[in-house]
Amino acid sequence: MKDVTGQFIPLRQVLQKFFELPDVFNVMEASVKELESDDDGMLRSFIQSDVWKRKRSMYPADAHVFP
């Protein structure tokens, strides 16, 4: 037998700290908007998929939603 330990890392707190870093939120938001508006028929990102479009439509247009 060998003792095994684990750690619980709350994702909400990790994401909050990440998005509080300088310019991270603004860069992410701009990137998502750019990918969402790029509609040339080529799928380059999950953000351009029908799955993401359905998920995104579940939130108000002015909500900040990241995959």
Q: What keywords describe this structure?
A:
mainly alpha; 67 residues; elongated; 3 helices
Could you say which structural class the secondary elements and strand pairing correspond to? mainly alpha
Spans of at least 5 consecutive residues whose pLDDT stays below 50 are none
- What is the string of helix and strand elements? HHH
Shape descriptor reads: elongated
How is the main sheet built? Answer: none
Mean pLDDT over the full residue set: 91
Task: State the separation between the terminal residues, measured CA to CA.
Answer: 40 Å
Number of helices: 3
Strand content is under 5%
Got a strand count? Answer: 0
C-alpha Rg, in Å?
A: 17 Å
Helix content: 40-55%
Spell out the blueprint of helices and strands.
Blueprint: H1 11-20, H2 24-37, H3 50-56
Question: Would you write up a description of this structure?
Answer:
- This protein is mainly alpha-helical.
- It is built from 3 helices and no strands.
- The N and C termini lie far apart (40 Å).
- The model has no long low-confidence stretch (mean pLDDT 91).
In a few lines, what is going on in this structure?
The chain is mainly alpha-helical.
